[in-house]
């Protein structure tokens, strides 16, 4: 997380989250570094391109919205299914304006295992054995992190909180 903070120049906020309630709703523990990212950034946009779902309240950048207001999934979503509490599948925690999605592949029977699963704009899935914050940093700052890195576009290294962001 420290490298993401340094890259964006963001001063960490103080977003208080009841993680026990969130994890109870999902019936699975979430990665510790994701929790730190949520508490330090809340929800918002990195480099004007990567939407980070770090809020647990409101309607924008809300990590829990898929479970609170489920939408039907398109047919043929590939080899992975969206996670349902107590089951296994992917949980989306970020996306880009180009259609890429950044998720974890989780299984309630194997709590604590959170490989990053990314789907590119062409629909291909790739699995990465790294933490959420390491993956996010590489997306933002590593020009050689293909096909998911955005650093090759030379975007400003910024973070903009969502309109519902607030410290508590």
TrEMBL record:
This is SMI1/KNR4 family protein. It comes from Streptomyces narbonensis.
């Amino acid at each position: 997380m420290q490298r993401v903070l340094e890259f964006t120049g963001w001063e960490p906020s103080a977003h208080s989250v009841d993680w026990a309630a969130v994890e109870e709703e999902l019936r699975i523990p979430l990665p510790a570094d994701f929790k730190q990212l949520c508490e330090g950034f809340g929800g918002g946009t990195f480099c004007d391109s990567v939407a980070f779902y770090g809020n647990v309240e409101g309607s924008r950048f809300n990590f829990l919205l898929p479970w609170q207001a489920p939408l039907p999934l398109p047919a043929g979503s590939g080899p992975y299914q969206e996670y349902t509490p107590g089951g296994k599948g992917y949980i989306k925690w970020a996306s880009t304006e180009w259609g890429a999605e950044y998720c974890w592949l989780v299984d309630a029977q194997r709590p604590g295992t959170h490989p990053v699963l990314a789907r590119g704009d062409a629909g291909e899935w790739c699995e990465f054995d790294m933490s959420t914050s390491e993956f996010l940093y590489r997306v933002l700052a590593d020009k050689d992190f293909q096909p998911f890195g955005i650093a090759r576009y030379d975007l400003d290294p910024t973070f903009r909180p969502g309109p519902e962001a607030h410290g508590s």
